[in-house]
């Protein structure tokens, strides 16, 4: 077998991930190297090294299409943890398209088939469209597989797919968590006023959800939910006062709840 010969020709400490291209894309055939050559090695600065495995037989024809081997060379990349296959790698995916039954299950099933885990996700209906955001984790091989196959799956499902590599979020010193709920007559700049309040008090917004619902007559009601983190424990009373003043100015009904986790830990004896 050609692949067995290929493995015999490569160093034993190489970790290999093979991905066979879809036969629909194997439209071209080319002559391979001579029988004395085992394989080509094409270095790729992003993933380490990429090897195009060719048939070393005298016929020189490609064996069943192109095989791509994504390699991690421990002796060359020692200390570069971003290329270590055993560590967790992370990928953010956004899928946008027309809503229809079963579409979310199709996406999550494809993610699972690639060996990735869904760490976090959000789904929302926006008009006739749905948007599905996921944070995936997995091995180096699994993340590369989802990156190479999801665009084809997205085209098949008529979805717009956006992907971006990321890293695990390190713990941050944010002792205060702030929950805000607001109901207010809808008008331009309302959400901006509440996000500006968070910015004024150096709060990091972790989640923001808003929706409008028809009200009495022609007016519509805007509902806002915000979860934010504040690094300063002494600002709780000032934040509450500023929030209530803003609600009064906008004729809004709102509630705010601030929890100081460091105080809870002290009370629990932590």
Automatic annotation (TrEMBL):
Every ACT domain range: 179-257
Top-rank lineage group of the source organism: Bacteria
UniProt-listed InterPro entries: ACT-like_dom_sf, ACT_dom, UPF0237/GcvR_regulator
Record organism: Klebsiella pneumoniae 30684/NJST258_2
Protein name: Glycine cleavage system transcriptional repressor
PANTHER family for this protein: GLYCINE CLEAVAGE SYSTEM TRANSCRIPTIONAL REPRESSOR, UPF0237 PROTEIN MJ1558
Pfam family, one: ACT_6
PROSITE patterns the UniProt entry points to: ACT (PS51671)
């Amino acid at each position: 077998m050609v692949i067995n010969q290929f493995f015999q020709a490569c160093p034993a400490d190489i970790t290999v991930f093979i991905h066979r291209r879809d036969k629909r894309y194997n439209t071209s055939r080319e002559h391979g190297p001579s029988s004395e050559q085992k394989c080509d090695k094409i270095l790729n600065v992003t993933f380490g090294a990429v090897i195009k495995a060719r048939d070393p037989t005298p016929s020189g024809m490609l064996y069943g299409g192109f095989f791509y081997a994504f390699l991690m060379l421990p002796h060359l990349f020692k200390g570069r943890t971003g290329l270590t296959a055993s560590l967790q790698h992370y990928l953010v995916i956004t899928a946008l398209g027309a809503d229809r039954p079963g579409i979310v299950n199709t996406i999550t099933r494809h993610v699972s088939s690639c060996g990735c885990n869904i760490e976090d996700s959000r789904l929302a209906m926006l008009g006739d469209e749905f948007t599905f955001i996921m944070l995936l984790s997995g091995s180096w091989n699994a993340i590369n597989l989802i990156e190479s196959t999801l665009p084809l799956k997205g085209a098949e499902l008529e979805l717009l797919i956006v992907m971006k590599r990321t890293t695990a979020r390190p713990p941050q010193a944010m002792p205060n968590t702030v929950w805000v709920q607001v109901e207010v007559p809808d008008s331009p700049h309302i959400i901006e006023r509440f996000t500006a309040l968070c910015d004024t008090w150096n709060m990091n917004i972790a989640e923001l959800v808003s929706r409008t619902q028809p009200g009495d007559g022609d007016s519509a009601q805007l509902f806002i939910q915000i979860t934010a983190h504040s690094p300063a424990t002494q600002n709780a009373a000032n934040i509450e006062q500023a929030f209530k003043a803003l609600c009064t100015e906008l004729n809004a009904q709102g509630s705010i709840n601030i929890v100081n986790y460091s105080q809870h830990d002290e009370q629990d004896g932590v």
